[in-house]
Amino acid sequence: MKNFKIHPFIYFVILLTYLELVIKYTMTKNIFNIGLIYMAIFTLPFILLFTLLSKSFPSKVNKVINIIITIILTVYYEVQFIFFQLFSVPFSFTSLGLADQALDFTAIIKDAIFSHLFGFIVLIIPMILTFIFVKRIDNSKYTLTSSLSFLGMLIVSYLSTYLFLIPFNETTKYTNDLYNNIDDQIAIIDRFGLLTYTKVDIKRLFVGYDPEIIIEDETPYIPPAIQEEPTDIEYGNNELDIDFTKLTSNNSSITKINSYMTKQTPTNKTKYTGMFKGKNLIFILAEGFNEIAVDKDRTPTLYKLTHNGFVFNNFYSPVYFSTTGGEFQATTGLIPTQGVLSTWKKTTPTIKYALGNSFSKYDYNIQSYHDWTYTYYQRNVTMETLGFYNYMGCGNGLEKRLDCGWLPYDSEMVNQTYKDYMTKDKNFVTYYVTVSGHSPYNSGDNIGRHYFDLVEDLPYSNPVKYYLAAQVELDKMLETLIARLEETGKLDDTVIALVGDHYPYTLTIDEMNEAATYKKDSIIEVNRSNFILWNNQIEEPIVVDKVGSQVDVLPTLLNLFGIEYDSRLIIGKDILSTNNEGIAIFSNRSWVTDYGSYSSSSKKFTLKEGKKLDDIDAYVKSINNKAANSYSVSKMIIETDYYNYVLGK
Length: 649
Fold this sequence. Notes:
The protein has helices spanning 8-28, 35-53, 59-87, 96-102, 106-115, 117-133, 144-161, 170-180, 185-192, 194-207, 224-228, 252-262, 300-306, 322-332, 338-347, 355-360, 379-385, 410-415, 419-422, 446-450, 462-487, 509-515, 553-560, 616-639, 642-647; strands at 280-286, 310-312, 315-316, 365-373, 391-394, 428-433, 494-500, 528-529, 532-535, 542-544, 548-549, 583-585, 591-593, 596-599, 604-607. With 649 residues, it is an alpha/beta fold. The chain has two domains: 8-207, no CATH class; 224-647, Alkaline Phosphatase, subunit A (3-Layer(aba) Sandwich), CATH 3.40.720. The strands form four sheets. A six-stranded mixed sheet has the order 5-4-6-1-7-9. The chain has a four-stranded antiparallel sheet with strand order 12-13-14-15, with helices on one face. It has a three-stranded mixed sheet with strand order 8-3-11, with no helix packed on it. Helix 17 (379-385) links the parallel strand 4 (365-373) and strand 5 (391-394).
């Protein structure tokens, strides 16, 4: 035993199996499924490659190579682990330009590590053991014959992986599609493992891929209750005179979108259509806002606005890569994967129906403000794609009006900007992106400290208290906004809309549940929030029980303001329409509808109490197809600049 040496091949088998299983369970909550077999097959070439690298040089060099490979692998798996805990999606190399800003707050990363310390330690254990027992690894140099033999095995094992992608039955067809043209990060990791996901991700970054759109042979399953529900057909539909069957293009993606659009049913107009026509709009994307922040005494303005005007009882703010994902959803009505966000920022397509663009043709005065670095998430570029050409942040003008040190006060941003638009005769659309509610939620948060006396006696842990304290500033912002509207005589003619960009993802699910009124899960219910849509002239609350999410915000606003648009061209749907079912789709492709919720990791559907479905399997398949298409079509719309194609320059 004293001279016992472990072969590097065995070492890397143990190391990668361990790391892969930890990540697989973390991200999918699955271990024992068919993915284990595929993971072993597709990870083998990596194991052989690492073995060959650590046996091709003199013993001392091989030892260093072995340690370097172990460190790189461990760090990469740790990065993926922390990234997933923060954003609920694995890191993609397509978003390198996004991640540097999303993760540049070291305090946030530190909090994330401490909040998930057990998993972090579990992943680092093999590296620690390697440092202790590195002398037990056989670092001797291979002979030329052995090296060539291993190289041959490496080539054969790599080429053999493609044999398992041959689509000869339903399982292998799905595996092939997942590997080649389905943008489902969690499913790829579940089926192939993290290293193969990384290979696929990098390949798609440089080569691209052709997303799949599922055109069902049969009519999608529609619950009987929806089929029987009367629709307001006398009001007409939100559609333009576009015959998608006659549109042609040499671009295969555009052709696919056209085929998809021919199958879409436009949403119907209702008695609420045009309800806000001619009014002003103030739209707020609120940093970290979640329903747990609303309190009758602590945040009275938030409470007032969430319980009056339109009251959406089943609204969700799915987290897709931090604030920029929430912004993209709410202002474009499309699904924002990391690849979509990256393409949006690089190619800057004109998104015709984006919030600012939709109102600009109606001669509104349009402006936007953000009380943090104006280039953050490349907003200096993307704001124009949304139609906000008069955009001001810290660094291009706003720093001359307020203190832009960490953290600024959102209420002060209102005080320093309201005269830009409220004192003018022209109708306005104003977009605010807040920052006061940003994490980390601890004693280093000056906003949280400022209001801490309001939460100090609450029976919660300190991170929760600081979060709730920080959200008091959002309440002060709304209070200030309403006061300024009243002073300038604009209150009655102005609509305030507010959504959170995402839930406070640096809080653990247990911490979220400390302040929640019911027990939330970490995938669906953690994203439940409020959509404020309020006007002083709405005397009685208009209660909406239909499920909605951030992608539905834009079409709902367009319909209420009487803006002409084609609802088939937007993934989100008017929440107030009556001829379509409500749905919220999450970053791991789980979803919730008016009838129930589906977990993509467990493949389990839970029917809501009081609801009935005569064919649950058909229903789940239909909604899964709808969710998959929402991802694919959103990607292709941005990549092909589809709106300019179909609506003209």
